[in-house]
Sequence to fold (321 residues):
Amino acid sequence: MMEDLASAFAGLSGFSPMMMINRSCTCATTRLIQCRGFGVYQNDISAKFDKSPDEVPDLAKEDFLARKKIIDQVAAWVDEHQDKTPQIIYKNEWVPILYGYEIVKGSAKRNRDWGHLIFTDLTLTRYLLVMCFGDPKCNCGSPFHHDYDAIVKYNTDRFMSLLKYLHHDDARPNWVRATYTTSKNRSLDPDFLNSLEGPKAGTSTTPPIFHVTPDNFTPSLLASDIEKIDNLLTSSRRKLPPSSVKNEVLGKKEGRPEMKTYLAGNEKNKRQCAYCEKVGKHDMPMCGRCKLVRYCSPECQKAAWVNHKIFCKKATSTKAA
Fold:
């Protein structure tokens, strides 16, 4: 694992985990910092989707194929429009940099807190966010499809809040354009790429398109998010944003969308191993001590203990207090 490799080099003078690019990175803060430090192309995750689904264990097959469909569609648009006029964005080029992310490591508490695909232009000022959902109609009695709009808007506001916080001094964000697909239709509405002027209402056959700017976003970072982001910035020897910027992006828990109908939006993933991140078919056993993480096997739990024991002991001591 990349974390283990980073630990091995941690004692070297001048080493920072930010120096290692991991295509499977799920931390949006890390990825954005690395995009500015190493360039957009170095953070391109397209190659991960040149593999077969079986070679990408951190995604279920359906999730892999849904994301690959979008990446291929955007790549085809770039091939057709790159360096041609008119330029909708710089060189008409989009680069996928994330395929499943949380704002900062440890910030996602429920499924609704996880974003899916993020594309950036070459200037790091314009972004596309695409969520890949399941069937828009369900016979289970939970009309979760009604919450898709709310989840996408919520994640778009969160991502814009992060951009404003990280890029407050340079490459300030212009907008984040967002939509979603479902298993019924995995293709993007052509207007999502061809017309970047503003939002578009959904229809009976196409999801809505959201267009969030620094002028209309909802501040959505929690104090705990900002604390984690600041820790990352400090560890990578970067200057912290001023308190005035913090106040502009700070939201409240009450601002999170209510997922009462979309039950999966409130659930943690009980089938994912905290170490190898493999998603199984059944709920995985919890750590018997802290009861905060799950592992698929005793081997994974043992391998994770070196890094987990600090948090595990802290969690249990807090509960005891």
User: Anything to note?
Assistant: The longest helix spans residues 298-320. Residues 18 and 33 are 8 Å apart (CA to CA). The chain is about 35% helix and 10% strand.
